[in-house]
Write a structure and sequence with these properties.
The protein is α+β, with helices and mostly antiparallel strands. The longest helix has 20 residues.
């Protein structure tokens, strides 16, 4: 049987699965824009006063280099960079899902577990300066910026408070 999804398509879908699972566990809703014209792949929404939200550009890679000085480098298209660095009422974040190099290890299902290997990291590019690059720019993501359940809740709380990040 022929696959319909390419490897990049599969990575993209796994990044959506990762963040959707975190959001569901946190009790938040998610939605995908009809078209990704503004570098937003997923919106996460909470309830309550002010209805805080986050807008995410999702990426996935199986080729992250070893961190240097507590951060790793990730190439990002200029369009995504410029869209994510602009001021917006809703915080916008880059989320990078790290997958194992071996495709067969990305995900495993057993009778007791659903395992999606590795983890995702987040980065705010708000307020970053213009660059002269025309196609891509390298951004540096701190290894401590792990996107897990607690961090998602913290980021949503920061959005609720109107913090700039």
């Amino acid at each position: 049987m022929q696959k319909l999804l390419t490897e990049p398509d599969q990575k993209e879908r796994l990044s959506l699965v990762y963040v959707n699972a975190l959001a569901a566990r946190a009790g938040f809703t998610t939605s995908e824009p009809d078209l990704d014209r503004d570098s937003v792949d997923l919106r996460i929404q909470a309830g309550g006063r002010f209805r805080p939200a986050l807008e995410l550009q999702l990426k996935a890679t199986a080729s992250l280099d070893a961190p240097q000085s507590g951060r790793f480098s990730f190439p990002l298209s200029i369009k995504n960079y410029n869209d994510l660095r602009c001021e917006a009422q809703t915080p916008r974040l880059l989320v990078v899902l790290e997958l194992p190099q071996e495709e067969s290890r990305w995900m495993m299902v057993t009778p007791e577990e659903l395992i999606l290997r590795r983890r995702a990291y987040w980065l705010s590019l708000r307020g970053r300066g213009e660059v002269s690059n025309r196609t891509a720019v390298t951004v540096h993501v701190p290894v401590g910026n792990v996107l897990n359940l607690e961090m998602l809740q913290t980021l949503m709380e920061r959005s609720w408070k109107g913090e700039v990040f």
